Amino acid sequence: MKLTDEQEAEIESQRTTTHSTRRVISPGIEDILFSAIPVLDHGFIRVTDYMGCDESIVQAARVSYGTGTKKTRNDEGLIRFLMRHRHTTPFEMCEIKLHVKLPLFVARQWIRHRTASVNEYSARYSKLDNEFYIPAPEHLSAQSTGNRQGRGEVLAGSEAEEVLRILRDDCARNYAHYEHMLNAGETRQGLARELARMNLPANVYTQWYWKIDLHNLLHFILLRNDPHAQYEIRCYAGAIEDVVRAWCPIAWQAYKDYMSNASTLSARDIDLIKRRLRGEDVTLESSGLTRREWTELLDIIDLTQ
Amino acid sequence: MKLTDEQEAEIESQRTTTHSTRRVISPGIEDILFSAIPVLDHGFIRVTDYMGCDESIVQAARVSYGTGTKKTRNDEGLIRFLMRHRHTTPFEMCEIKLHVKLPLFVARQWIRHRTASVNEYSARYSKLDNEFYIPAPEHLSAQSTGNRQGRGEVLAGSEAEEVLRILRDDCARNYAHYEHMLNAGETRQGLARELARMNLPANVYTQWYWKIDLHNLLHFILLRNDPHAQYEIRCYAGAIEDVVRAWCPIAWQAYKDYMSNASTLSARDIDLIKRRLRGEDVTLESSGLTRREWTELLDIIDLTQ
Amino acid sequence: MKLTDEQEAEIESQRTTTHSTRRVISPGIEDILFSAIPVLDHGFIRVTDYMGCDESIVQAARVSYGTGTKKTRNDEGLIRFLMRHRHTTPFEMCEIKLHVKLPLFVARQWIRHRTASVNEYSARYSKLDNEFYIPAPEHLSAQSTGNRQGRGEVLAGSEAEEVLRILRDDCARNYAHYEHMLNAGETRQGLARELARMNLPANVYTQWYWKIDLHNLLHFILLRNDPHAQYEIRCYAGAIEDVVRAWCPIAWQAYKDYMSNASTLSARDIDLIKRRLRGEDVTLESSGLTRREWTELLDIIDLTQ
Amino acid sequence: MKLTDEQEAEIESQRTTTHSTRRVISPGIEDILFSAIPVLDHGFIRVTDYMGCDESIVQAARVSYGTGTKKTRNDEGLIRFLMRHRHTTPFEMCEIKLHVKLPLFVARQWIRHRTASVNEYSARYSKLDNEFYIPAPEHLSAQSTGNRQGRGEVLAGSEAEEVLRILRDDCARNYAHYEHMLNAGETRQGLARELARMNLPANVYTQWYWKIDLHNLLHFILLRNDPHAQYEIRCYAGAIEDVVRAWCPIAWQAYKDYMSNASTLSARDIDLIKRRLRGEDVTLESSGLTRREWTELLDIIDLTQ
Question: Tell me, what's the ipTM?
Answer without folding.
Answer: 0.94
